[in-house]
Description:
This protein is α+β, with helices and mostly antiparallel strands. The protein has twelve helices and nine strands.
Amino acid sequence: MAVTQHIWHCGAGLPGDVLIADLRAYRYAPHFHDAWSIGAVEHGHCAFTVHGVAHSAAAGDLVVIAPGQVHTGGTSDAPLAYRMAYIDAAWFDDHAQALFGAVSRLAAPVITAPALCTQWLAALTPAAIPDGERRERISAALFGLLAAHGNAIGAGHMDGANGADRAADARSADGKDAKDVCALLRERMAADPACAPDLEALALAQDRHRTTLVKQFARRYGLPPQAWLRNWRVARARVLLRAGLPLAQAAQAVGFADQAHLTRVFKQVYGSTPGTLLRADSQTLRARGVSIR
C-alpha cells in the first residue's frame, strides 16, 4: 500500500500539534476523537466506516466526522493523499454560533464539494506559512463549510450515537429505559477516565444482564464500554501531554496501568506513539510536510 498523508492536528490555538500517522497501525481499529475531524482528499480514493456504515471518498471530497463518532481510518490499495484537521469542538461551535446563532452539525461524513476541498487543502498546506495566516485560512474554510452544509440543530458533541439505535434501546423488550442506563455509564466514564466501572453491578441495579447492557451500549455509542473507555482515556491523555504532563503521569492520571499500555492504545487510535507528539517540532514539520510510503 502506497500512502502519502498530511495530517494537521488543530485545536483552539491553531495550527496546533502535528502527528505522523501510519495507517497500518489503526486501519482496522474502530476509534473516535474528541474533536471534529475534517479531511480533504487531494488525490486517490479511500474507504472507511462511521458507526459501522461503509463510506468512500475520492479527490475533491471532504470527510467530516463529529466528535465521538466511532470510525475506522481511511485506507486504500492505491496511492492516496489527504490532509486532515482536528478542530477543537469549542472552536467549531464558536464559528457555528457566529454564523447561525446556534451550534451546528454537518450532516454527511462525505461531502462532494471540489471548491471547498481546494480551500481546505490550501488551508492545510504543508508549506511554511505564519500561524496567524494558517488560522485565518482554516477559519475561512470552516465558515465556508458550515455555510454550505451546516445544520443548526442543537448540541450533542461526543454523543456518537445512532438515532435509530437510541430509539431501539429505549424500546427494550423488558420495558426498561436502556438509553438512560447507557447514558449514565458513559457520563461516569467521561467524568472520570481513571474509573473502573462495575458493569455487573450496574446491570443488576437495572434488572438486566451484563451482556445486555454491553450490547446496548455498543449499539448506541459504537464501541463496548471498556473499548469506549480505553479510547476516551487516550483522548484525555493527549490533552494532558499537550499541556506538558510527563507520559508516565498522564498514563496514571487517566487510568492506564503504565506508560507502555498508554503508548500501545495511543498508537491504535492515532496511528502514532505519544513520543511523536512530544518530540514533534511544529516548525520543521510545517516546512516539510508529512510523507509516509
